Amino acid sequence: MSHVVTAAPPIPGPVAPPPPPPVRPVRLALLAAVSLAGLVVLAAVHLTQGTSEIGALHLLGLRADEDTWRVLVASRLPRLLAGVAVGVALGVAGAVLQSLARNPLASPDTLAVNAGAHLAVVAAAATGLALPIVPSGGLAFLGGLGAAAFVLMLSAGGTAGPTRLILAGTATAFALHACTVLLMLLFQRETVGYYSWGNGTLVQGDLRAVTQMAPVIAVGIVGCLALGRRLDVLALGDDTATVLGLHVRRTRLTGTVLAVLLSTAAVVIAGPVGFVGLCAPVLVRLVAPAVPGLYRHGLLMPFSAVAGVVVVLGSDVLLRLVMGAQAGVDVPTGVVTSIFGAVLLVWLARRHRDAGPARGAGSTALARVRAAGFVRVVVAASGVLVVAAAVLGLLAGDAWLLTGDVANWLAGRSGPAVTYVLDQRYPRVLAALLAGAALAVAGTAVQATCRNPLAEPGILGVTAGAGVGAVTLITMFPATGLVAMSAVAGGGALLAFAIVYGLAWRGGLASDRLILIGLGVFTAGTAVITFIIIATDPWNTGKALTWLSGSTYGRTAAQVVPVAIALLVLTPLVAGQTRRLDLLALDDDTPRVLGVRLERTRLVILVAAALLTSTAVSAVGVIGFVGLVAPHAARALVGGRHARVLPVAALLGALLVSLADTLGRTVIAPAQIPAGLVTAMVGAPYFVWLLWRTRVRTNGR
Questions:
Q1: What is the pLDDT, as a whole number, of residue 223?
Q2: Do residues 52 and 76 lie in contact, with contact meaning Cβ atoms separated by under 8 Å?
Q3: How far apart are CA 369 and CA 375, in angstroms?
Q4: How far apart are CA 415 and CA 10, in angstroms?
Q5: Tell me, what's the pLDDT at 253?
Q6: Residue 273 Cα to chain centre, angstroms
Q7: Residue 509, φ and ψ in degrees, nearest 5
């Protein structure tokens, strides 16, 4: 036999990166000139807005007087410089974070940097620490850095995809926000004014914050610019960057620290101004195809800084132009930037190509089979626990009762004191039980339909829609009736769901796209709720926090009726679709082969989930994580078949919210912790564990 000798393949050496597109100096100079001219005009308009009349002639010095200069120096100029500093810092931070994660949705908001910094500052205020500006900035930096590191760890550095990054950041931010709100509720006197500040306000009493944070921002920007060449190489991919001699981990660590430094400096100046770090780099990248070379970080970061200033000042100008001068004082600018950022998030999500369903609610769960006897034991035990939780809810509170008191009350033989207490408590217990069950059933349906184990009813935009409707009605008509409240909340929920579903539909319903669009609508809805409350009743922080945190306080028996009706009507509807839910949890092809009308079934189930969620929100406010935790716990107990999961999830959801409500009104009685904050503190760690477990599985494949 003859042997053919072949030459060994050459050992690959360092691969030179493809040459970047050449910079077109004329186009670049034109873009720079237009940007600077636009900034000058925007700054001039910004200075003319306010409660005192200062026009263009005053700015040009033709009609200047002492009062004019006093207003400019004491109020207008600090606000303008704060907007410039915040825009520059967040624009550069967003560009760096998106490049490090190679993810267009990375930003100080989606990485929970703002939430971590906000919590650190509020915690210091709650404990009575009156820190100067620079130490306060250091504390905010530590909080933001810890949150960002945690989110990046859960999302594999952000490279696992935009959906995972958004879910990890949202869950972490939600948990941190719950802790922040709890501190503001418990220490209202010490944290007065922090609710409005926590939404990002440019109102400044003087220039101290800007002048003391300006050197920090300058250091951060210089560091990021020095990192620009490394970020260009990192954009080629980790493997290629390593071959070219780049220390990838060190670059990521340095870039993250610098981006967090810039973000927390912005938080110290104006509070968490939402989504500027997301919008600014995206706007620059939209222009980049027309200006070759703009993708280079040496140019991307400076222009992102300019875009950040345009977003911040433009939002502030728009706010005062539409709402009047006083709105600039009452309404935080961050509310407007959050709405703008949510719209941009939806637009990016519509362009996003679905990466396929996340596994865990699908075939893997369905493969786990439990014996029928074991399932019956689980259902019976869950039912007993729900009854025990209901009894505990009646007994516990600022005044503890005995089971004999409850028995006498049920028989109509209790005294006036016991009767008064139980008449106040039983509607709260019922509201918690029924709302928890409704959210759990909705969560089970959403996870199966979206084939994403990390989904929950809030991603449909239903929670935000119902909240906007209810808060608007409460604000405009404080003495509104139950029927009107339920109708408006339900209508808002269905409208929000229709928007999410319509925007997510694109030749089919992609799981990732639905989640991203739903989160965008949720963000916009939350910003609108904050805007309504602050614009109409800026000093009533308790009203905002109680509603947005989920509470059964002051509930009546009549307010529970819509939730009970929704459960009685819609739960059998969802239960009748359990076999189809099993098929939907697998893939799109299997249901079609077996004759299931996929889109019609999916729409019916999601509408039912939307209605269940809206009635729960109208009864108890916004309560998160129940629709996520209860279905997961049910699947862990009885397997993945939805005929078994549905009843167990409903019982576990009722149990979770009931215990959360009882704990919230007992542990620090007579003060109370909203049930939504307690469920967030329980549900967020569970959600983090789910993300970590799926991260380990992904890396292990």
A1: 93
A2: no
A3: 10
A4: 94
A5: 87
A6: 14
A7: -105, 105
Per residue in 466-497, is it b (16+ CB within 10 Å) or e — as a string?
bbbbbbbbbbeeeeeeeeebbebbbebbbbbb
Please give the pLDDT value at position 652.
Answer: 92
AA letter at 1: M
Q: What is the dihedral of CA 576, 580, 585, 586, to 10 degrees?
A: 160
670 prior amide bond cis, ω within 30: yes
DSSP letters spanning 480-543: --HHHHHHHHHHHHHHHHHHHHHHHBSSSB-HHHHHHHHHHHHHHHHHHHHHHHHHH-TT-HHH
Q: Which of 272, 176, 266, 159 is nearest to 216 (CA)?
A: 266
Contact 335, 271 (CB under 8 A): no
67-351 and 363-670 have identical folds? yes
Neighbours of 508 (CB within 10 A): 12
Instruction: Give every residue of the chain whose pLDDT is below 50, as ranges.
Output: 1-18, 62, 355-367, 696-701
- Euclidean distance between CA atoms 152 and 129, whole angstroms: 30
Closest CA to 96 of 224, 240, 238: 224
How is residue 193 written in tokens? 């004014």
Please give the C-alpha separations between residue 314 and each of 66, 304, 333, 585, in angstroms, as whole numbers: 28, 15, 10, 45
Quickly count: other Cβ atoms within 10 Å of residue 305's Cβ: 27
DSSP assignment of 319-363 equals HHHHH-TTHHHHS-HHHHHHHHHHHHHHHHHHHPPP--PPSSSSH
- Beta strands (DSSP E) in 351-498 are none
Q: Collapsing DSSP states into helix, strand and coil, what is residue 626? A: helix
Count CB-CB contacts under 10 A for residue 20.
Answer: 12
Which of 672, 545, 424, 686 minimizes the C-alpha distance to 178? 545
Cα separation, 654 vs 379, whole angstroms? 13
Q: Residue 683 has which token pair?
A: 């549900």
The predicted structure's pLDDT at residue 328: 64
> CB under 8 Å to 224, separation ≥6 — which residues?
92, 95, 96, 255, 258, 259, 262, 301
CATH of 363-670, one of 3.30.1850.10, 1.10.3470.10, 3.40.50.1000, 3.30.497.10: 1.10.3470.10
Residues near 456 by beta carbon (within 8 Å), at least 6 away in sequence: 443, 446, 447, 624, 625, 626, 627, 628
Sign of CA dihedral 114, 115, 116, 122: positive
Q: What's the pTM?
A: 0.77
Identity (one letter) of the amino acid at 199? Answer: N
Report the C-alpha dihedral over residues 89, 90, 95, 101, rounded to 10 degrees: 120
Architecture of domain 67-351: Orthogonal Bundle (1.10)
Say if residues 627 and 439 touch (Cβ distance below 8 Å).
yes
List residues bridging with 505 in a β-sheet.
509
The Cα 611–Cα 613 span in angstroms is: 5
What is the per-residue pLDDT for 56?
52
Helix axes 416-450, 557-575, angle to 10 degrees: 30
Measure the CA–CA gap between 489 and 467, rounded to whole angstroms. Answer: 7
Identify the three-state secondary structure at position 666.
coil
Provide the 8-state DSSP code for 668.
Answer: T
Q: What is the DSSP string of 586-609?
A: T-SHHHHHTT--HHHHHHHHHHHH
Structure tokens at 311: 């977003």
How many residues are given for the chain? 701
Instruction: Decide: 357 and 452 in contact? Cβ < 8 Å.
Output: yes
Looking at residue 624, its pLDDT comes to: 77
- What is the largest distance, in Å, between two alpha-carbon atoms of the chain? 107
